[in-house]
Specification:
By secondary structure, the chain is α/β, with parallel strands linked by helices. It has a single domain, classed as 3-Layer(aba) Sandwich (Rossmann fold). The protein contains 4 helices and 4 strands, in the order H-E-H-E-E-H-H-E. The protein has a 4-stranded mixed sheet, with no helix packed on it.
């Protein structure tokens, strides 16, 4: 699925719809250059899942976990990952194959 947007509001609302319709085990891959709205769509997904805490980019932590919504949300930033072993160290498989929603 490709989602195109022309504003922050459209991007956020697309994320809300994804979050509202998300099922356990779903993985969404978000791709784009710096500043195109990856964090905004992530904030929308979180809102659609019922998460009210602040959602921001996990750039320096690799993954942020949000557990307060109807499903857990795992928000990854794999830009700085240089080796697949680093993903194993953070428990990637457990999250991707678990009962939550993953944003990568």
């Amino acid at each position: 699925m490709v989602i195109e947007s022309n504003s922050k509001e459209e991007t956020y609302n697309a994320g809300v719809r994804l979050g509202q319709n998300a099922a356990p085990g779903q993985v969404y891959c978000i791709y784009g250059d710096l500043g195109v709205g990856k964090t905004i769509i992530s904030q929308g997904v979180a809102a659609g899942l019922g998460i009210t805490e602040v959602v921001n980019s996990p750039t320096f932590t690799i993954v942020k976990e949000y557990d307060e919504g109807r499903l857990p949300l795992y928000h990854f930033d794999v830009y700085r990952i240089g080796d697949v072993d680093e993903m194993d160290e953070i428990g990637y498989n457990e999250m991707v194959y678990g009962d939550g929603v993953c944003l990568i």
